[in-house]
Specification:
The chain is an alpha+beta fold. The protein has a single domain, classed as Beta Polymerase, domain 2, CATH 3.30.460.10. It is built from five helices and six strands, in the order αββαβββααβα. A six-stranded mixed beta sheet has the order 3-4-5-2-1-6. Strand 4 and strand 5 form a beta hairpin. It is globular, with a radius of gyration of 25 Å. The termini are far apart. 24% of the residues are buried.
């Protein structure tokens, strides 16, 4: 059973932020909820080298662990150039450029909706209380007293 889309989108935002902070290239987020019965979002990102690929995975694991996200599985075959992290509602694919081009997941999921980076990085507006007009403080009467 999939969790709510809002929760999945929050998870996507966390992953996107980690990948962006760690200089992953060509980050793409696909909403596959209409095409897939097993996940809502796919995140695709490119690493510059095998060590960078491992570093991206480690940072994602730390962030997901801090968020108490249960990982369904992880495929991290050494020197394959492709790592997959399955967080149930979000599947994260980390590639070296050559592997990303070879497998072409963007082409495979071309019917999916790409989620814009601006939607993922937008800071939510703070809720403010409606201001109520301030009452003027009572003033002492001036002048002569009435009789």
């Amino acid at each position: 059973m999939k969790s709510t889309k809002t929760t999945a989108l929050d998870l996507v935002k966390i992953c996107y932020r980690v990948l962006d902070d760690k200089k992953a290239g060509e980050i793409a987020v696909l909403d596959v909820s209409e095409q897939s019965s097993i996940t809502d979002f796919m995140i695709l990102a490119t690493a510059t080298s095998e060590p960078h690929l491992r570093a991206l995975r480690v940072e994602l694991e730390k962030a997901l662990d801090a968020g108490h996200v249960h990982l369904v599985g992880m495929e991290t075959a050494q020197e394959s150039g492709w790592m997959v992290i399955d967080a149930f509602d979000v599947m994260i694919h980390l590639f070296l450029a050559e592997m990303r081009e070879r497998y072409g997941l963007e082409r495979l999921w071309r019917d999916a909706t790409e989620v814009s980076a601006s939607k993922l990085t937008a800071v939510p507006a703070k809720k403010t209380k409606a201001k109520t007009p301030r009452r003027a403080a009572p003033t002492a009467s001036r002048g002569k007293k009435r009789r």
